[in-house]
Amino acid sequence: PTRLVIDCDPGIDDAVSLALAIGSPEIDLRAVTTVAGNVPVELTTNNALRILRAFGREDVPVARGAARALVRVPRAHPPVHGSNGLGGVDLPPSATPPRAEHAVYFLASLLREAQTRSVTIAAIGPLTNIALFVALHPELIDRIDRLVVMGGAVGQGNITPVAEFNIWADPEAAHRVLTGSDLDICLIGLDVTQKATIDERGLAALRAGSDRGGLLAEMIAGYADRGPDGWPLHDVVAIAAIIDPTLIRTRPALIEVDTGFGIGRGQTVCSFTRSPAAGNGDAPHATTRTQIAVDLDVERFREMILARVAAGA
Ligand code: BDR
Ligand code: CA
Prior knowledge:
InterPro entries: Inosine/uridine_hydrolase_dom, IUNH, Ribo_hydro-like. The chain has 313 residues and is of the alpha/beta class.
């Protein structure tokens, strides 16, 4: 199985992502790190612990990470995930505390013990922790097989007309990771995740599946991000694509992040590369080659979610 660390800000779609990882034999979930994003980091940490408890995996260590963005605290944003980050669902508290170390140091100690390219990271919140990690521990980058990020958009944004929330919440961190970290990155943005919806029938199937499915259905029903086809499970696409890479189609691209303080702040500017070698005048400041998701097999994605997240008690 793929050894996986999930860096997240639960968050309703983050909660479903944790449930999918837990319900999948292809994944060996080694740790969960948390970051400020949908709600403050105390709450995202608490939510991660509660979700792991609800899904019977209190053995997975949780480490609390960055409490704020690197350069500028983003302006207040609407509480899309409810005031507690889980659509108002009050999960029982976990008796397990988070790790004493900061998420970045915890990740470093985990990777120091790991073989070359043996750990995958899914980053499904703002990229603050990952940016700090690549800045502090360049010697450990080679332990990471791949970084799969939910973030960005080639087209329309969701928090501004051009910016997606995770990138907008810490553009400088995203810039550090996406333009010069030398990581092998797969970026899964809104162009694809907006298609990854679940509707009322899906929620009914979750409720019918198990108590755990019922909890997730209740959270999703409290999720303010809703389009005509239902609720987009953005983050879940990242985990699903790690489990089964054939669910998405990707193209190589160079990505730059707008870190200016104008209306473009947080935009991911994507140049689909014209030749295998970076350059050609495309995205002059980007050196990290990224695979960007351009399509999703929605039907197979939905089947995977319904078959797996409600598994267990
Ligand atoms: C992203 O923003 C958050 O609200 C979701 O959890 C997801 O990570 C979607 O733009
Ligand atoms: Ca998230």
